[in-house]
């Protein structure tokens, strides 16, 4: 047995660690998304038993992710829980198609600034929204409304006993998570988030605090395959934007996570197209079960690697433990205080904000830093899908502008011909600047235009330069002499 599975012990122990990390996150993401807690566990189970068995990234762990919480909440609010499964199902089929068409590796070309801006914006919305949940207050619907309403929410909570008790549990949960890293190594073998939830649950029970807890419906009770009514929603054009957003954002997050996980271990590298197929298969199954969408999750993945996992057996086993927990101990979910789960997501949202990345980008690449900030602000101000599109558009515009970088050098020695050197990339974007320089040259002097230093000369620029050269010189002056690479 051991000769056939030489890493069984390491993978078994790693699976326990990943399971303990996954439980509070699966439940917390589901509650924050506005769906039954069990749906988060179902997605985690599928991530282990379906995606976990497939090829792609052997040590990456998939499940419900905080990064999709905002999008899922918006989709549930607009289209209903019954339609969520259909959205996830079609998004999964799109991922399968992209994987089979070998589009997976192209996601690596997405600007890192856009991805980090997306995560930053999501983090801000999660933090703002979950503070309301931690205080047992209703959150405004928009991202800006959530942030702008925080002072009023704290003022409202100040005179409310139930809200203060909830905030105390939430603050205590975050304190445990932060301080847990300073505990002895033996104690840290229990994940901080799990320890925080257990302690918050015990405190709520011992002190009989008036704090809301998770509503439990049972694993089979929440499974809701897409019905005829859900398919009728496809006639609404708005739903297709949500489907595409699910597919693209889940894919980008998964493949960027895979690149990060590859840097954590020395094992086989990720096969990006196969990982896309694995994610698509998982989301297709989640959609058929009416569950949350899945992505690869860096928190669980890094826990898996750090716990000593060697093969994909660890992530498959973590799915088995989630299934056993959801079927044998559903009563345990009903004891968990919602403020504790909200605080776990506040902590997760904080970690999504790349503070150091913003500072380093601003020092070395201010254009990229601007794209990051604009993407994040757009997600907060509008919504996630349109915010990401704005970030991508800015990234493309910046790249196009940089690709058209051009230097014009004019050498006039007072006598003889005026020498003009163009270097870089001459595209239509720089054509007005080129012509301003050239048309300012005197017409009664010979001109030598040297184009040999150009890396690229597009058709529009070539035609404009030829036209200028023909018309520039006065009748008694030598024609413009043009030197090219050819």
Secondary-structure map:
Layout: H1 8-32, H2 37-49, E1 62-63, H3 69-79, H4 81-100, H5 112-134, H6 143-148, H7 150-158, H8 161-180, H9 185-188, H10 192-207, H11 219-222, H12 228-232, H13 237-262, H14 272-289, E2 295-296, H15 298-306, H16 313-328, H17 330-333, H18 338-352, H19 355-364, H20 366-381, H21 384-403, E3 406-411, E4 418-426, H22 431-439, E5 447-457, H23 459-472, E6 481-483
Parallel strand pairs: 4-5, 5-6
Antiparallel strand pairs: 1-2, 3-4
Helix pairs in contact: 1-2, 1-10, 1-15, 1-16, 1-18, 2-14, 2-16, 3-4, 3-13, 4-13, 4-14, 5-18, 5-20, 5-21, 8-10, 8-18, 13-14, 13-15, 19-20, 20-21, 22-23
Main location: membrane
Protein name: SulP family inorganic anion transporter
Keywords: Membrane, Transmembrane, Transmembrane helix
Please tell me about this protein's structure:
With 486 residues, the protein is an alpha/beta fold. The chain has helices spanning 8-32, 37-49, 69-79, 81-100, 112-134, 143-148, 150-158, 161-180, 185-188, 192-207, 219-222, 228-232, 237-262, 272-289, 298-306, 313-328, 330-333, 338-352, 355-364, 366-381, 384-403, 431-439, 459-472; strands at residues 62-63, 295-296, 406-411, 418-426, 447-457, 481-483. The chain has 2 domains: 8-397, no CATH class; 406-483, Transcription Regulator spoIIAA (2-Layer Sandwich), CATH 3.30.750.24. 64% of the residues lie in helices and 7% in strands. Strands 3-4-5-6 form a 4-stranded mixed beta sheet, with helices on one face. It is elongated and about 100 Å long. The mean pLDDT is 86. InterPro entries: SLC26A/SulP_dom, SLC26A/SulP_fam. Its main location: membrane.
């Amino acid at each position: 047995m051991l000769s056939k599975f030489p890493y069984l012990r390491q993978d078994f122990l790693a699976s326990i660690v990943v399971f303990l990390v996954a439980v509070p996150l699966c439940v917390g993401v589901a509650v924050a998304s506005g769906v039954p807690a069990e749906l988060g566990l179902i997605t985690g189970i599928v991530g282990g038993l379906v995606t976990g068995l497939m090829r792609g990234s052997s040590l990456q762990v998939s499940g419900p992710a905080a990064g999709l919480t905002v999008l899922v909440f918006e989709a549930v609010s607009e289209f209903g829980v019954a339609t969520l499964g259909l959205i996830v199902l079609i998004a999964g089929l799109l991922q399968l198609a992209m994987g089979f068409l070998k589009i997976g590796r192209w996601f690596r070309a997405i600007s890192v600034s856009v991805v980090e801006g997306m995560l930053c914006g999501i983090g801000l919305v999660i933090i703002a929204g979950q503070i309301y949940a931690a205080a047992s207050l209703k959150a405004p619907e928009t991202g800006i409304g959530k942030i702008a309403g925080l002072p009023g929410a704290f003022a409202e909570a100040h005179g409310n006993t139930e809200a203060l008790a909830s905030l105390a549990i939430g603050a205590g949960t975050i304190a445990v998570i932060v301080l847990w890293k300073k505990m002895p190594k033996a104690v840290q073998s229990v994940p901080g988030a799990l320890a925080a939830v257990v302690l918050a649950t015990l405190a709520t029970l011992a002190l009989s605090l008036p704090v809301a807890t998770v509503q439990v419906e049972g694993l089979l009770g929440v499974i809701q395959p897409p019905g005829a009514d859900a398919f009728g929603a496809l006639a609404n054009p708005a739903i297709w934007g949500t489907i595409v957003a699910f597919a693209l954002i889940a894919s980008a997050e998964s493949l960027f996570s895979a690149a990060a996980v590859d840097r954590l271990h020395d094992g086989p590298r990720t096969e990006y197209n196969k990982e896309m197929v694995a994610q698509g298969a998982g989301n297709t199954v989640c959609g058929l079960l009416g569950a949350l969408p899945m992505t690869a999750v860096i928190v669980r993945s890094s826990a898996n690697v750090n716990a000593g996992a060697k093969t994909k057996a660890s992530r498959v086993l973590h799915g088995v433990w989630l299934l056993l927990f959801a079927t044998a101990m559903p009563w345990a979910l009903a004891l968990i205080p919602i403020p504790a789960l909200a605080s776990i997501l506040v902590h997760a949202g904080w970690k999504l904000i790349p503070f150091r990345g913003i500072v380093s980008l601003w020092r070395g690449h201010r254009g990229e830093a601007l794209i990051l900030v604009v993407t994040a602000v757009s997600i907060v101000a509008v919504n996630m899908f349109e915010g990401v599109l704005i970030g991508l558009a800015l990234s493309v515009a910046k790249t196009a502008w940089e690709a058209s970088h051009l230097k014009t050098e004019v050498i006039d020695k007072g006598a003889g011909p005026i020498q003009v050197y163009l270097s870089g990339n001459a595209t239509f974007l720089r054509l007005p600047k080129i012509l301003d320089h050239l048309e300012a040259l005197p017409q009664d002097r010979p001109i030598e235009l040297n184009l040999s230093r150009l890396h690229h000369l597009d058709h529009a620029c070539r035609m404009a330069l030829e036209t200028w050269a023909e018309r520039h010189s006065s009748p008694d002056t030598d024609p413009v002499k043009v030197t090219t690479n050819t």
